[in-house]
Each structure stands twice: as structure tokens, then as C-alpha cells.
Amino acid sequence: MASLWESQAVWLTDRLLRAFVPRWEQVGEPAVRAGYGRLEAWVSIVINTLMAAGKFALGLWINSIALIADAGHTLSDTLTSVVVLIGFKAAQKPSDRRHPHGHGRAESIATLIIATLLAVVGLGFLRESVERLIAPQDVAGHWLVVAAVALSAGVKEWMARFSLELGRRIKSSVLAADAWHHRSDAVASALVAIAIGAAFFHLHWLDGAFGIGVALLILYCGFDLIRSSASYLIGELPSDDTLRQVDEAARSVPGVIATHKIEVHDYGTHKDVSLHVVVADGKTAGRAHEIAEEVEAAVDRRLGVTSVVHVDPRGDAPAAAPEERVRAIIQELLQDETAVGSFHGLSVTGTQAGEGRLHLHVVVKTHMDLARAHLLSHELEQRIAERIPGYTVTLHMEPCERCE
After folding, report:
1. Is the pLDDT of residue 297 over 80?
2. Which among 252, 285, 316 is the end of a domain?
3. Computed over its alpha carbons, how large is the radius of gyration of the chain?
4. Three-state secondary structure call for residue 101
5. SS3 275
6. CA dist., res. 317 & res. 362, Å (int)
7. Both 143 and 219 in a single domain?
């Protein structure tokens, strides 16, 4: 059933894209990317405005603070969709003298605004719901209202999946944020439907209690989005997977011995990568330039970025430790650990001068105590770092029942 739901959602998404976004499959084009954002925003604005009006009217009719709060939450979705429109419009602007890397981060600013609106709405409804819980008021139970609110929860879940699917296709954080806004409203509507149904059994206090639940859910989504979007705008380290892909792409070029000083700058609509590659001594300036261009092409092709490469002779920069030697050292260190079954996912990457990253997964017996596993992880990281100096070691523990 879940796969059928998802396939239908993808089918409808494709139909809407074909109808409203020219060249919708060319997601790398800024105009197409903006078209995705406009489509999601206008679908959200139309549906949320209609649902918010309906919920507010029904909430006044049956005197339900939870339903009125849910109407406010839905209306805030309409406002955030306007922010999405503005964010994508701003992000589409080309680079200029003051913004040579474009305006792609405007999407994350829009995400931050959406999150702040969520937090403000949540605080307001939290206060009102606490007051209603302290002094409960009669809520008129009505099955038609319960059915209408339950239906709205289903519609909001579809909207969440729609936004997530669009966001996945163009790798947009603002669409993902709006999707969680929709999903929080879907959960809130489900809780409200239960609260209204409880009125048939004179459990009027549930209205205030579930209103608090809705408000806390709104606050959680808001503050989580504020944290993530602010962290991105400040500047986050690239993931280990990204560093690994850059390193692998660079070392696929003949003549490259290792990489270091890998930096990734994410500007929303594009990413810039800078790195140093180590080549053998004795290369001519012309050959070094050719290697740099080949590495740039390989990295750009692998990650869809714009890269700049600096070439260092072997004597001027550290090379990443040979993976075969690292693997042999780890096997030697683990052979006396009876609780360890095996290891995999070894990644060795040279980074800044004199430093490097080493990551691996270690499989342990499933019955191992968590405290013991935590201690063993630190011990192994320290022992590996001592044998391979200059590297930051990250070790991930995995249970394995077959290792008993």
C-alpha cells in the first residue's frame, strides 16, 4: 500500500511538472529550479488557504481551541509558501559585483524565515492551549468535523510528500523545510480529529492537551529548522562522503599521488571545490597544469561542482597513507580483539598539510554491552592513531549476530 501511495504521488508530481514547468527534466537550469519552487509554493498557497478557512470556521462552530490552532498552523503554511516564492525568485538572480557567487543562499534565508514563523505561531498557540487546559471549555463533538479534519490530514501528508519529492529532485533545503511544515500540520490535524472525537465522551480537557501537543510539535519543527539553516549559512564542514568522492575523483587521474586541503563551499545553486593534489617530483609546469585541468574535470564530472586545483610536488605536501598499509595495520591491531568480527568501509583521505582523515566500520558481537562498545571504540581509535600519526580516526561500531 505504501509503495502504491508513493508511486501515485510521483505520477501526480510528474503530471503537474509537465503542465506547469517548461523543460522540467532539466533540473540543472536555474529557471527550471525556480519553476519547481513556484509550483510547490502555488499548490501550497491555494490548498492551505482553503483548508485554513474551513478549519477556522469549524473551530469557531464547535468552540475547539485545538482546531483553531490547527487552522492557524495551516494558515502559516500559506505564509511560508509566499516566503518560498520570494526565496526562489531571489536565488534565481545572477551573480553581480557584490555577489560573485550568485544568490543561491537566499533559499536558506527563506528557510530561516519559515522556521521563525513556525516558532512564533507555536509559542502563541502554546499559551492559548495551556489556558484552555487550566480552564476547559465545552467542545461540541461532531462526526462531520472529525471526518473533515481527518481528510485534511491526508491532504497535508500528500503535500508533504509532494514537496519532499520536488526538493529531492532539485536538492532544495527550502522545499524540504516546507515539506516538514506540511507534515507537522498533518500530524496536528490527526491529533485534533482525536480531540474532537473525544468530546463525544465529555473529555473536553483533551482539546487543551492536544492543543499543547500541536504547539510543541510546531515549536520543535521551527527550532530544528532554525538550527539547521543557521548552521548551513554560517558554513558547515563537508561530509566525509563528499571528501571521499573528491579524493577518489582526483586520484583517478594518472600522476596524482594524494590530495589534501579539500574545501567545499556550498552556495545553494552551485558548489565550489578547492583542493591540492600531490604529484611526483620532476614534473614540468606544463604537465602539472595538464594534471590540474584533468583533476578539475574529473571532480566536476563526479560531483557536479566547479573545482579549482593547486598542484604540489611530493616533497611539499603530505600524501595520504597508502590504503594497503593502513589496512594491514588495522588487521594487526584487531586480530587479538575476540569481540571484533571484521571491519569494512575503510576510507583514507589526506586533508590539510600534515593531517588526514581515516574512517572505518568495525563489526562486533551483538551481545556486547553498550558501555564496553563505547570504550572499545575509543581504545581502537587511539591505538590506530598512534600507529598512523597525523590522522583523525573515526570508528563506527556495528553489531553482527553471525559473529557469535
Report:
1. yes
2. 316
3. 27
4. coil
5. strand
6. 30
7. yes
